[in-house]
Amino acid sequence: MLLSDFHLFRLKIIANILGVDNDGLASNTLIKVRVNYLIREYSTMIIDIIRTTIEVKKLS
């Protein structure tokens, strides 16, 4: 996958939970923008991790 660096982190966590082999290449984001995105995306990342974990447990 080719993503921005702040999305790559979330993708790799979710792929690991799902047991999917993953590799990614991140494009660089300006530090000022990255900090803003990380703050904004943090809650979404937590929600995604919880949802994915619940779905995986349902399928087991």
What this model shows, in words?
The chain is mostly helical and 60 residues long. The protein is built from two helices and two strands; from the N terminus they run βαβα. It has helices at residues 5-18, 31-59, and strands spanning 2-4, 25-27. The chain has a two-stranded parallel ribbon. Helix 1 links the parallel strand 1 and strand 2 (25-27). The N and C termini lie far apart (27 Å). The model has no long low-confidence stretch (mean pLDDT 84).
Strand order of the largest sheet: 1-2
* Uncertain ranges: none
Count of DSSP-assigned helices: 2
> Measured on Cα atoms, how large is the radius of gyration?
13 Å
What shape does the CA trace take? flat
Beta content? 5-15%
The run of helices and strands is EHEH
Please give the number of β-strands.
2
Structural class: mainly alpha
Please estimate the helix content.
over 70%
Mean pLDDT: 84
Largest beta sheet, briefly?
2 strands, parallel
Give the terminus-to-terminus CA distance: 27 Å
